[in-house]
Amino acid sequence: MKVELVKIKGRSYYIPGATNVGVYRFKNGFCAIVDSGIDNTAGKRVIETLEAENLKVKYVINTHAHPDHIGANEFIKQNHTGTLIAASPKERIFMENSSLAGTVFYGASPMPGLSGKFVKAKETTVDIELSEGAVELGDKRFNIIPLRGHSIDQIGVLTEDNVLFCGDAFFSEEKLSKYPFPFIFDLREHFKTLEFLLSTDYDYYVLSHSDIIIQNPKDLINKNIDNLNANIDMILSYLSQPLTREDLAELIIKMYNIKLDIPQYFITLTSVSAFLTYLLERNSIEMSIIDGKMYFYV
User: Fold this and answer.
1) What pLDDT does 115 receive?
2) Which residue among 35, 83, 108, 213 sits deepest, i.e. has the most Cβ atoms within 10 Å of its Cβ?
3) Where are the alpha helices (DSSP H) in the chain?
4) Are 149 and 141 within 8 A, CB to CB?
5) Boundary of a domain, candidates 227, 261, 288
6) pLDDT > 70: what percent of the chain?
7) Average pLDDT of span 5-15
8) Do residues 23 and 11 touch, judged by C-beta distance below 8 A?
């Protein structure tokens, strides 16, 4: 199926897909893209769409290091010579050392089955390290917006058209319905990101996984906050009796009927850990080690 380059505003566009790819057109036939997709097939779609518009990729700006955002980087570099990869400092570490993703999930060298493309992307060298604030790429200025929480050092990319490509900073209603227990790395930072975004007034917000471009995100952001608070209330209810992390994960998996394979189990367990850390930091729960097990409880 042919995929078209969709104009948002000015020189800001996107390519719809399983992971939406942001595009900023320069005047010289080059472009910057925001994220690349999960694999070579996704990368081929991006290149074909851009070449139909006589565009070549000069920069790939990655919002974060999850495989569905960086998996096509190397394919694009191989097909468009001279492409430069840009990312934030901590996401760079994971992009250049892709086995670390499985290590974070597992806590050691990843077990067999924890290295598929949804966990481990092809390693990609980062050429430009991005810090918060203004950065010039080509002849244009972009603003790098910190959006931590879903991942360790996620960023958003704000174009001169006042269009924010915001990665997985928040989720569409469809995704919240399908995945009501979202993947979170740092819940405290995620709440801070959502509160920050509520205070913003960009013209357009482009989520990585949404069928629509958003102009007023406040209702959706509040639904994301409500989802997190509902999960917190559920966890506090479960922890009226002492539970291990794995016990709690089992209850959440059954509650939401989460379909499991090895990667999904550890993805869910990691999110459980993020909620537990947040509640411990707020002194909402306690922890004890008894008979060789770590228990959490209200």
Assistant:
1) 80
2) 35
3) 40-51, 67-70, 73-79, 89-96, 99-106, 173-178, 187-198, 218-238, 245-256, 262-281
4) no
5) 227
6) 100
7) 98
8) no
Q: Which residues contact residue 206 at a Cβ distance below 8 angstroms, ignoring those fewer than 6 apart?
A: 8, 14, 20, 22, 34, 163, 164, 165, 166, 213, 214
pLDDT at 3: 85
- Do 288 and 195 share a structural domain? no
Least confident of 61-70, 105-114, 233-242: 105-114
Task: Collect contacts of 273-277 with beta carbons under 8 A, ≥24 apart.
Answer: 273/245, 274/184, 274/185, 274/186, 274/187, 274/190, 275/184, 275/187, 275/231, 275/232, 275/235, 276/235, 276/245, 276/248, 277/186, 277/187, 277/188
DSSP reduced 3-state for 280: helix
For 247, the domain range is 230-297
90 and 157 within one domain: yes
Q: Final residue of a domain: which of 201, 227, 253? A: 227
pTM attached to this predicted model: 0.96
Average pLDDT over residues 50-68: 97
Reported as a single tens digit per residue, the pLDDT across 191-228 is 999 999 999 999 999 999 999 999 999 999 999 999 99
What's the mean pLDDT in 257-286? 97
- Tokens linked to 210: 């949404």
Same domain, 87 and 56: yes
Provide the CATH number for the domain around residue 204. 3.60.15.10
- Spatial distance between the Cα atoms of 159 and 297, rounded to a whole number of angstroms: 46
Query: Are 48 and 181 in a shared domain?
Result: yes
150 and 288 both lie in a single domain: no
Q: Is residue 129 part of a domain?
A: yes
